[in-house]
Amino acid sequence: MSRTPTLRTVGLTKSYGSVEALVNVSIELFSGEVVALVGDNGAGKSTLVKCVSGSIFPSSGEIFLEGKKVEFRNPGDARSAGVETVYQQLALVDTFDIPGNIYLGRELKKRGLRGLLGVLDRKAMRAAALKSIEDFGARFPDLYAAVETMSGGQRQVVAMTRGAHWGKNLLLLDEPTAALGVRESKSVLEIIEKFRNQGDKSILIISHNMDHVWQVCDRILVLRRGHLVADLRKSDTTKSDVVAYITGAHEA
Ligand SMILES: Nc1ncnc2c1ncn2[C@@H]1O[C@H](COP(=O)(O)OP(=O)(O)OP(=O)(O)O)[C@@H](O)[C@H]1O
Ligand SMILES: [Mg+2]
């Protein structure tokens, strides 16, 4: 029996002038899977995530979600299709609090005076945000402080919670634990675990941290100079094997 992958890319290619950031990359992600995307700096990892999340358009190749071909024009298109992304550069609004950031651009409205739809429903947004924070086990010193008062690690956990809150089928994470301390890394890895356990979901996580990869992933994809050079089940490989693919030692 063949299952339909949550995400499938076919021959995805992205060039910037003479730079081939991504070359003919075909991957599949199935529901319930956490897949790591690894590779050296400049290998094309963020480029792949940006193509799938609609923030850049591939030069060629196709993307399928649940078997259906998609052509995202912008990140909003991808979000509407249930694809959530936590980027390397977090997109948080500093002066907003956590619920404000979770609902950024997707605010809930209620009917105001004379029945006009248009007043922000802060109470409903706070309640739903709180529920997600609790469901995903994130901990913050003050939920209603502006995120600019938070540490880099705490802000990362806010962005992760937002992704998990909205992600209907696919969560793309670009180095969610880079620059995080032990506590915040643990929090991020727990959110990944809880998101996966919600059932019909897939996660693609970029990471340079092999320990984190080994903690949460089922499968590892290795990019090298824009090419997919390995697709390995964690149970069939070792960290040093993966590193050999990353550095190209396997090509020698
Ligand atoms: N907007 C751009 N214009 C020109 N070249 C780009 C652009 N974005 C990425 N590149 C190039 O594409 C290649 C892949 O970059 P990408 O950001 O995907 O790498 P990465 O694997 O995410 O690296 P890192 O681990 O450092 O984040 C690099 O050579 C990079 O310089
Ligand atoms: Mg990157």
Query: Which geometry do the CA atoms define?
Result: globular
**End-to-end span in angstroms?**
38 Å
Question: Main β-sheet, in a few words?
Answer: 6 strands, mixed
CATH classification class of one domain? Alpha Beta
Protein structure class = alpha/beta
Low-confidence stretches: none
Stated plainly, the CATH topology of one domain is called: Rossmann fold
Please count the beta strands (DSSP E, at least 2 residues each).
Answer: 12
Q: Calculate the mean pLDDT score and round it.
A: 91
Helical amount: 25-40%
Number of helices: 8
Strand order within the widest beta sheet = 6-9-10-3-11-12
Based on the coordinates given, report the CATH architecture of one domain.
3-Layer(aba) Sandwich
Beta-strand content bin: 25-35%
CATH superfamily of one domain: P-loop containing nucleotide triphosphate hydrolases
Describe, in plain words, how this protein is organized in 3D.
The protein is of the alpha/beta class. It has a domain at 7-95 and 168-251: 3-Layer(aba) Sandwich (Rossmann fold). 32% of the residues lie in helices and 27% in strands. It has helices at 45-52, 75-80, 98-102, 122-135, 152-166, 182-197, 210-216, 239-247, and strands spanning 7-16, 19-29, 34-38, 60-65, 68-70, 83-86, 109-111, 117-120, 170-174, 202-206, 219-224, 227-233. Helix 5 (152-166) packs parallel to helix 6 (182-197). The protein is globular, with a radius of gyration of 19 Å. Bound molecules: adenosine-5'-triphosphate (ATP) and magnesium ion. Adenosine-5'-triphosphate binds next to strand 2 and helix 1. Residues 16, 19, 21, 39, 41-47 line the site of adenosine-5'-triphosphate.
